[in-house]
Sequence to fold (87 residues):
Amino acid sequence: MATTTPRPAIEALDVPLADVQADIKRRRVTPEAVREALQEVQARHKGDKEYPAKERAATAGALWLVEHPECCSTAADYPDWTCGGTA
Fold:
């Protein structure tokens, strides 16, 4: 019977919004830092048969979006849209 190392609950990974905002202001969170973190995740799980395919896809997709910001929408793409508004 194979055993696996328990992973922490998602709640253990949460960071308060104020901390994220402070890191952004201090320029700790940059596209380069995000790219490096995602590449590190990919490298760490390369060949890991227990790492779910959907996690691999999510990591690859996030990395692609960081490397291709022109593919992400901006406020200019939807000038009349209001968050929580009605269509």
Observations:
- The chain has three helices and no strands.
- The two ends are 54 Å apart (CA to CA).
- The helical segments are 17-25, 31-45, 53-67.
- The chain has a mean pLDDT of 79.
